[in-house]
Structure prediction request, 118 residues.
Amino acid sequence: MKKLFLYLLLFLGIFILCFLLANEYFKQRMQEKNGQKLDIAADSISVDTEPYPGGFTVGIKNGCVIVYEADTEQVYEYTEIDAALLRELHPELYRDLQGNVHFDSQKELYRYLESLST
Prediction:
């Protein structure tokens, strides 16, 4: 009877230890996931509605739509919008982009890029 009690006590101790370790493991995993969500939110695009100094210019180069800073003419963002496809689907927008399109704020810019990609 004593042996049975000791085995039961040992089994119960191991079971509780496993439960506590698993609980701690899953708590850490949840914290990591929440941390990743916060990192993703921090990396997300924040769109300013205020005018951007100098503004942006959107044009076509090497078969893709590219965004430049208007005042420095440095590349602000590369897009994956295919110019050849844009020429087939929306020839008037393609012609506008060949002459470069100017935007004063990020909000206007990203609305325009969203409309091009849909």
